[in-house]
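Sharing a chain and its predicted structure for anyone who wants a worked example. Both blocks are below, sequence first, tokens second.
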Amino acid sequence: MGTESFSAIALTVIAIAIITAVKSWLKRISSGCCGSGFEQIKAIKVSDRCRTHYPYHRILKIEGMHCSNCARKVENALNSQNGIWAKADAEKGQATVYLKTQKDDAELIAAVEKSGYSVTAVCHDDRT
């Protein structure tokens, strides 16, 4: 195999990489990293925000959140459940979850996964 063949193969690989990167960039511009575009996802508000009413506390390590809309989707998935108040942080890759009653970790994980993200760890810090 000559130098010309090697150069042709290298240029083909570089061209494919550039095309893939441009397609990904265009998709992100048109639909946002979580498919919501430039439109902000509306938050589900929790009416009771008094921390003393939430004796149980979990920190969920979450993979796949890249922006504030991603974090909002995770928060909404958790906050839509009765007795839960959650705050997600895409930069830290985690959600802080306050619970009024003891809940199975599997319920919290299922809610997050249903919103399109993966829970990699659950840390318990109950104040009972």
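Comments welcome. The beta strands are 56-63, 84-89, 94-99, 118-124.
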